[in-house]
Amino acid sequence: MLLWAYKKQREIHRRANQYQGELALGHPVFSQGSKAVLHNGPIEMNRFKSLEARTAVKDIEYSAEDDIAIEEHIREFVGTTWHSLGTCKMAPRERGGVVDKDLNVYGVTKPKVVDMSPTLPLEQSRLPPEALNPVYDINPLTFSSLDLSICPENVGANTNNTALMIGMKAAAIIAQGLDLEV
C-alpha cells in the first residue's frame, strides 16, 4: 500500500502547475540510470494549459530495483505524527493485553509496567539526558512524542493529561502493593 501511495503522490505532484522539481529529502535514492531518478528544476511554472496536457505526462516507469529502494526508504523513514497507544495495553490476556489491572506483566513474576516510552531518540529531545528519570523512564516533558503503552484503546483527550493520570494511578497501585498510604 505504501509503495503504491509513494508512486501515486509523485505522479500527482508532477502534474501540478506549482511543480518545480523534487527535493531529494523525503525520497529514496534511486540507482544511476533509473527512470525513477528525481528531477529538480528549473521547470516552467504553469506549463499545463489544459487537462489534456496534464494527462499527456507519462507515468514514471519503476523497475524492481526501484521498488526495493522505495520499500527500504519507507521502512527507514516512515513514522507517525500521532502518539503511539496500546503497545503494552492493559487488558485481559485473551484480548491481547500485556498487563493486568495491577500493572503485572502476564507470564512473568514481579515486574510491573507503567510505560510512557519516548518514541523519539533521547538525542532529539528538548531536555538533557539527566532530565530523564532512569528508574521509571517517565518524563512527559522530555519528549515531544510519547508511547502511552498501557492504554487499552485510543483516548479522546490530550495525551499529556492522560500520561499524568496514568502516572498518578500507577503510583497508587504500586504504593498499595508496598502497603504504603498515598
> In sequence order, what are the helices and strands, one letter per element?
HHHEEH
Residue share in helix: 25-40%
Q: Number of DSSP helices?
A: 4
Main sheet characteristics: 2 strands, antiparallel
**What number is the mean pLDDT?**
77
The neighbouring-strand order within the major sheet is 1-2
What structural class is derived from the secondary structure elements?
mainly alpha
Poorly predicted runs of 5 or more residues: 119-146
For the record, give the distance between the C-alpha atoms at the N and C termini, rounded to a whole number.
Answer: 50 Å
Rg over CA atoms? 24 Å
Number of strands: 2
Tell me what portion of residues adopts beta-strand conformation.
under 5%
Q: What is the 3D shape?
A: elongated
Model description:
The protein is mostly helical and 182 residues long. It has 4 helices and 2 strands. It has a two-stranded antiparallel sheet with strand order 1-2. The chain is elongated and about 75 Å long.
Write the layout of secondary structure elements.
Layout: H1 2-14, H2 51-55, H3 64-77, E1 116-118, E2 146-148, H4 159-177
Antiparallel strand pairs: 1-2
Brief sketch in words of this structure:
The termini are far apart. By secondary structure, the chain is mostly helical.
Which short descriptors sum up this protein?
182 residues; mainly alpha; two-stranded antiparallel ribbon; 2 strands; 28% helix
